[in-house]
Amino acid sequence: MNTTTAATIALTATCGECEVRAAALAQQLNLPLVDNDELHSYELILFVTPERLELGETIHKAPKPIYVDFLGGSVGHRHRFGGGRGQPIAKAVGLKGGANPCVIDATAGLGRDAFLLASLGCHVTLIERSPIVAALLRDGLERAADDASVSEVIERMNLVEGDAAEVIRSLDEDNIPDVIYLDPMFPCRDKSALVKKEMRLFHHLIGPDQDSSALLEAALGKAKRRVVVKRPKSAAPLDGPKPSAEISSKTMRYDLYVTLTNKLSATQ
Ligand SMILES: C[S@@+](CC[C@H](N)C(=O)[O-])C[C@H]1O[C@@H](n2cnc3c(N)ncnc32)[C@H](O)[C@@H]1O
């Protein structure tokens, strides 16, 4: 499982007022807390800034650090001007008419897909197993919860830190979601600038998710209505049963596994 990183990583405070927060987080994440002059001894750095938590690389010409942003950037833009319930991800999850399914996003990452689904009315439980990604996500959720323009959406999002396959297997009857959504990391073959900077950083931090088929199997055993797997358009489906249907966008494909009929026939 990819709960640990192969990269060397440390944490630093970027201002005097950030030091107490940085020390607490360093202890929580079990990371060295370092000064500015030690940063280059590590490959990745978590920066505690006055505004937020950021993750950056120390290589020469490193791109700007990444952070979770539900207010501005592409996520905020998609929230304000996005395609609503007609967009492929909404169709994939089954947002027909007024339906607001309860969704588990079992591969939360930076929370963009989860935020989109919550902004369309779903209640979303986000599960993330990388403690560092979960810390970035918690920081973004806390900041957005204080902003009146998105606080209602954030109330529909609940973060759970841990391995999703284990969390899903342990769900009791009262907490079965309608939909389980998966967007695992796929092997990164393209080293060019075309690979988005956060993808590169994610690959540096956690590498590809090599146990996605086991996660799919756990999800298929629990989801009330369907499991949705987001894949690059040209990638094969995950190992396991064949998808029941697929919905494509320009660059991505959503493989759908309808589970409702399985559950009905199992109880008849
Ligand atoms: C490609 S990213 C997801 C991006 C996300 N959909 C978004 O919109 O920001 C995949 C994430 O899933 C997490 N992940 C993969 N397998 C997991 C598992 N079994 N349990 C919990 N998290 C998992 C990885 O740590 C990584 O952060």
TrEMBL record:
Primary localization class, coarse: cytoplasm
The answer on whether this UniProt entry bears the keyword Metal-binding reads no
Cellular component per GO, a single term: cytoplasm
Q: Where in the cell is it found?
A: Cytoplasm
Provide the reaction this enzyme catalyses.
Answer: guanosine(1516) in 16S rRNA + S-adenosyl-L-methionine = N(2)-methylguanosine(1516) in 16S rRNA + S-adenosyl-L-homocysteine + H(+)
Q: Does the keyword S-adenosyl-L-methionine apply?
A: yes
At which positions is S-adenosyl-L-methionine bound? R112, D113, E128, R129, D183
A GO molecular function for this record? rRNA (guanine-N2-)-methyltransferase activity
Check the record and name the Pfam families matching this protein. SAM_MT
Q: What is its EC number?
A: 2.1.1.242
Domain of life (superkingdom): Bacteria
Keywords assigned:
Cytoplasm, Methyltransferase, rRNA processing, S-adenosyl-L-methionine, Transferase
What HAMAP family does UniProt report for this protein, alphabetically? Answer: 16SrRNA_methyltr_J (MF_01523)
Reported function:
Specifically methylates the guanosine in position 1516 of 16S rRNA.
Family according to the record: Belongs to the methyltransferase superfamily. RsmJ family.
Q: What is this protein called?
A: Ribosomal RNA small subunit methyltransferase J
Q: Which organism is it from?
A: Solemya pervernicosa gill symbiont
Ranked from the top, the taxonomy reads: Bacteria, Pseudomonadati, Pseudomonadota, Gammaproteobacteria, sulfur-oxidizing symbionts
Q: Which gene encodes it?
A: rsmJ
